[in-house]
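DATA SHEET
Item: assembly model
Revision: 1
Owner: S.N.
Input lines:
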Amino acid sequence: MKKIFIILLIMITNFSFAQEFFSPAKNFKLTISTNSRGEFFYKLDYKNKTIIKESKLGVELVREPNLMDGFEIQKIEEKEIYEKWSPVWGEVDTIVNHCNSIIVYLKQTSTNRYLNIHFRIFDDGLGFRYEFPGQENLKYFIIAEEHSEFAMTGNHTAFWIPGDYDSQEYTYTTSRFSEINALKGRNFNDIITKSIPGEDFVQTPLMIKTDDKIYINIHEAALIDYPAMYLKVNKQNFVLSTHLCPDAYDNKAYLQTPFKTPWRTLIISDRAEKILESKIILNLNEPTDFEDVSWIKPKKYVGIWWSLHVGKESWNYADIDNVRIDQVDWNSLKPNGRHGATTENAKRYIDFAAKHGFDALLIEGWNIGWEDWFGHWKENVFDFVTPYPDFDIEEISRYAKEKGVELIMHHETSSSVTNYERRMNEAFEFLKKYGYTSIKPGYVGPIIPRGEHHDGQWMINHYIRVLQKAYKEKICIDSHESVRLTGLHRTYPNWLAAEAARGNEFNAWSEGNPPEHETILIFTRLIGGPMDYTPGIFQIKMGYYSKERERFQVHTTLAKQLALYVVLYSPFQMAADLPENYERFPDAFQFIKDVPVDWKATKVLFAEPGDYIVTARKDKKSENWYIGAITDENAREFSIKLDFLDEGKYEAIIYRDSEDAHYDKNPMSYKIERKKVDKKSSLKIKLVEGGGCAIMLKKLVD
Ligand code: NOJ
Ligand code: CA
């Protein structure tokens, strides 16, 4: 297996050295080369087609000679890796890591500096990273920019959101590289800076499709102590190149050798389904060194949450503004009569969660400060330990415990991260005292310290500090408005989910997410890890709540909301709608109650970014299978062969769109059917425009 293929200097005259390496099944060929200037290149072929043309690698340093050229290859090490491991939770219970590892040891002769480039070639793509080994001539240094290129072979189609150092909450545009116009990004900066520098770059995971139907996903793995990566798009030659999130000085990363950057990942297949089944990103992350993971449990939860987003209740207790949390006598304030996080309401939700078997309850708006948070850009907004006068935390925590419902703490930091870090010890002591098991930290708004960004090195380290602190206290994390995931949940399995994309919430108070949104999210944001998308909205038109919201709605049918629990993987899954809405549709609600949040096996049956996804998963704890199917604004039909089922008979409980359903005209019309099936059966399903179908395949005892 350890054969090295050497092509002797004949490839292209410009290249003075070139060598080829293959993936285990040999469907991928990596060619590395240097030219007469000592620049270093890689090239990637898949099934004898070039996918990435010769692309340069290197980094630019602040006030130092760049590590971009003048390289000499000292040696190359190649080895095959084959291992199996089991994630603490996940889409599958066993993951195979099979690849060829190549380490290229480079020396920059003029500076006597060393840089190693690591490649891992899998049968579904490639990972590469830079290593700055410990060395005499490079100890402390600052990255000005990483210049990793991905030279594309043509003007492919991309599914992209604009570059923004602080947010990924955008809808996707599908366009050719040449038509990318990503200048509309950086929304949080827009509100506090005088001018916005203009440069075109897009976010990763970036999904790409070539005209000859090759699917390419570019992202990163193991983002630690380094800024997040975006991609600059050259619209003439279609070379994508890395652009790192800067700090206030426009520097990118402050490093000390030895150091390894995150991996840059390319997942490639001629079948879109295989992109979604790839485990490259998880395999490139380090195994966890957590000693005890037995307390880390996937969770299905409800929340005092949607009522706040639809405007039925409020986060704030009083209708006042311009308050200083430490100077207000909260007990003497007049409540606004709409406050959601009251003791009574919390108990109502605890009863609902207990009755229907949910693990946990999230309560937002429980702590003082909501009168004065968003848009005020000040440092001291929340203290994370003082409940409003109508929130009897003692009693709520006692009641939740009695009913067997966990509590999820909400820490909206309003991006005043200095304030959060300063108060973190007390905040953790407080939530441990009241028996909370998880935290939803939120980072809405521009970061304090000012000039830092959500995706910059300083914040990347902050998210990890929170995870480590949470691990010590046996707490799980669901971060909102954080950096998007890069498979770090392998290393930190208490990072159950993140938002870091445009979630269902946008449908409550804006033009929302188009019907295709989730079919792209799954190929982009979810490639890095689970998302707290908050599905399960049954009351689809927002005019139900108030006249002002008449133009807002979720762009879905009710059956599609059920299907999202299967297609959008997360071990932290919310039943987001109001209890009273679930009580109106108890038969459909049954699916949300039944669907698991941890899986033994996953098969993506049909998928096309921007169009549709059909996924089957097997429950980790039972013999039951589940299928979810979603479509964009077009109606579609699928014939699903059930050959993935185990032996024996199943009852298929099919939650589908009614014939006359439509995401806009008739979104809440669904039907439930039951059929006996086995592995020889096929199921024909029809999805209406913006629709979906959810199926439970319940194993019958023989
Ligand atoms: C945005 C979060 O995504 C949402 O879930 C939360 O309710 C609000 N911020 C308030 O913290
Ligand atoms: Ca959000």
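QC remark: The radius of gyration is 26 Å.
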